[in-house]
Please model this.
Amino acid sequence: MRKKSNRNKTKLGSLLLLLAFFFYFVVVKNNGFTKQESKPEITNDTELAQFTGKVVSVSDGDTFKVLYKGKKQRIRLMDIDCPETGQPFGKEAKQYANSLCYGKTVTVKADGGRDQYGRILGYVYVNDTLNINAQLVKEGLAWRYKYSENESLKELESQAKKQHKGLWVQQDPINPWEWRKQHSGK
Model:
């Protein structure tokens, strides 16, 4: 009789332990039966060829975070380079970009590529008309990359230089890629 009682206690203990594990893993760990379907993750860059989202932060003149499908996407403005924050006109470029798009809904038109830091490369538009990339170059707050095939950026940069706008007021402005080389060891 005593053996049967001990066996029942062992079975009951094992059953309780099994139920405890079940409860922990199914209900607590995985949010169990009440788990709601989450928004789909972006799995490829083709979905990001063109999308609309809200600018939730401006890191510097040419880098933003855009909220898209509940996830912050890091965006790097394509074909331009703004002065770094520690450079002359770096803070102005960030402030200007911030005034143009922070908290606003923007359309990102990307080429499907990413830079070495994983940021989406693209053009950013406010109200589908104001091109942030072009606006920064026009105001003398960004360089156009020499490899860029965008002729309008080339023309805007030329006009900004002639009008001594922004960074072009300096006699010999140092572009950001050279400035980064000079300051990378510091």
Summary: The mean pLDDT is 84.
